[in-house]
## 1
Amino acid sequence: MSIKLGILGATGKVGIELLKLLEKCTDLPLEIPPQLFGTSRSAGRKIKFKNQELIVEESSGQNFAGLDLLISCANGEVSEKLIPLALKQGVKLVIDTDSYYRMEANVPLITSGVNDEDINWHQGIIAGPNCSTAQLIIPLKVLHEAFGLKRVVVSTYQSVSGAGKAAMDSLFEELREITDKQSANESLKPLKKDQFAFNVIPKISKFMENGYTKEEWKVIAETRKMLHAPELAITCTAVRVPVLVGHSESINVELLSPASLEQVITALKAHENLEVWAEKETYPTPIEVAGTEPVHIGRIRKDESTNNAFDMWVVADNLLIGAALNALRIAISAYKKNKI
Ligand SMILES: NC(=O)c1ccc[n+]([C@@H]2O[C@H](COP(=O)([O-])OP(=O)(O)OC[C@H]3O[C@@H](n4cnc5c(N)ncnc54)[C@H](OP(=O)(O)O)[C@@H]3O)[C@@H](O)[C@H]2O)c1
């Protein structure tokens, strides 16, 4: 069976990465090139795909008929309004990279390589996780299965591309404005609240009543859902840093069963989507790993402050494993399971 694919939000950061991945993908038999959807702003725009030029259509909500699979990389408002319309028009599966449906009980939330078996019970929509959760969940799943997780403490260092192309443009505008200034002292004055350039912002998304931000709460709730561990003790502080692409995370895990450092490293090395930097004094950084597919994990060491706990540093391309690559892997997995 071949597949008719549509991409909603094809002109955004995630959409463009998805198209690049699809150009070299041989595991998903596309009947025709993907149909691309955006807003009226990008309607008519031409995007190169293999040796053709595809034309972006405005997503009226009525032009999804005939598609088997729709991958949505737009935003929550689009997910809310257009995904139900796509399902009504007979689209067999929608994979949504947005958070809108992630915590719905009848929507599987999937990181490929972690819980692909949950694809089996989809009812038309599958959600992909937040970009920070996607790279966190892979090592956590390995350690949960091998030793059991007692408690997890995560701090994220998230790139601006996590907030889409507009945020990346803002960072560049700020940098231009700052470098136009006459002296270093002048550049120290903030241009605005939550300036990205030369800053570190411990607030991503809105604050909640309990003091967490929504971003932090997504990491917590999504991890519990994908690990099927609703009581898991996990906390998170999510921070925006002036990096273009690639999220980094400092993770501290306390394990239930005793494990040596070697056993932890061996278990992590066995996962096909993890690249372990085990050589002494090596460590991944976002600028080095942007554009690569694995989740990179280094600085793995025993936490000397307590028993049976480990620290690690995890870096990955948020546009790939955090969204586009995961969505594509979900599609391939669903196709192989005959679930499209
Ligand atoms: N960036 C990440 O690292 C990341 C990671 C995980 C999940 N996600 C999720 O992926 C989605 C896309 O993120 P992004 O970073 O690629 O955002 P982005 O760069 O801002 O792109 C948004 C895309 O959505 C399109 N769009 C907006 N309103 C639309 C509408 N009414 N109808 C059709 N298309 C519409 C835009 O089209 P125009 O070009 O025409 O405006 C653009 O193609 C979001 O839901 C985000 O939460 C992102």
Note: The mean pLDDT is 96.
## 2
Amino acid sequence: MREERSKRISVKGLKLQVDSGTNSGKLVKEVIGLNKTIDGKSIVKGLDLIIQRSDRIGLLGPNGCGKSTLLKLLLEQLTPDSGQIKTGTKLKVSYFDQVRDQLDQNRSVKDYIAEGRDFITINGKDLHVVSYLKNFLFDPDQSRSAIRTLSGGEQNRLLLAKLFTLPTNLLVLDEPTNDLDIETLELLEELLIEYKGTVLLVSHDRTFMDNVVSSILVFEGEGHVQEYVGGYADWVTRNKAELANNTARTSSKPEESEHEANKRIKVAAQKRIRDLDKVTVQIEKTEQQLESLHTEMAKATFYELSNDKQTVCYSQADALEARLIELMDQWEQLEAS
Ligand SMILES: Nc1ncnc2c1ncn2[C@@H]1O[C@H](COP(=O)(O)OP(=O)(O)OP(=O)(O)O)[C@@H](O)[C@H]1O
Ligand SMILES: [Mg+2]
């Protein structure tokens, strides 16, 4: 399916640009010890996370595990039970909600996109709304029609077209791939790869996810959410149970074209740089945490704590040291790749 999609897009030849707006600050979100329980079920437990400008993070987990809930927590639409979320500066957020707003069915397609004007402005340049909509595979007749004449999948495509008219530097996409046809899926993939801002993405389309994200947050059950640098395929490789399945799929791939190979190499190089950057920040953060814990443990007052409390500190230090070794390994592997 992936190969089929790639061929179509290379035939189409995209010229569409994405409006990435102005840059946000380097830090997008810092999450510390986040906890959320819904109806007695732990959705997120003790989550620490740093999201930096240009990160592309995919959320992975079964239905009902809490992906949409975590996005809403990050967007501060939901309040956590405890923990902190620090939000960076100059953020312009666009949120593609899983439960989409009802479109005004009587409005014309082009009026909805351009708010009644004939032109929209992308990266400071005016573009005729009908030309813009052509990029999203709407012909001029459809552009002038009422939204009610569009199918469900076409209405989803229209919502995406609208999303990319807004200057934004943080895109939060909750299952944008549902009901999309193959061409739109490819178009969205290309747009997201070109996009310079930060992306948080939920999608059950694993190939799409893998092509777009550079790290994943995996819901591993009972509120445990673990970040893995690399995409879905990297995560699968680490999960040996799924390895055989993955290899079978890889070996059945037909040969890729030069365009596809170039794209793959470009995306891989960008990913590697982002991954290295991300691991470096995580190493620094873990080192700081370990250092402040060591400082506390070196104080005379530490020995006045109960045995239980001292044991907790020793375990925390062990866990941080293990995490540091794991991160150093990741860094070395990335550096050598
Ligand atoms: N408004 C709500 N009221 C009560 N329970 C809710 C509410 N929203 C979510 N939940 C519950 O919280 C849990 C997590 O839901 P959430 O929608 O975040 O999952 P998800 O991972 O996004 O699932 P999906 O893949 O199906 O979209 C589920 O058990 C769900 O039933
Ligand atoms: Mg959801």
Note: Residues 1-15, 249-254 have pLDDT under 50 and may be disordered.
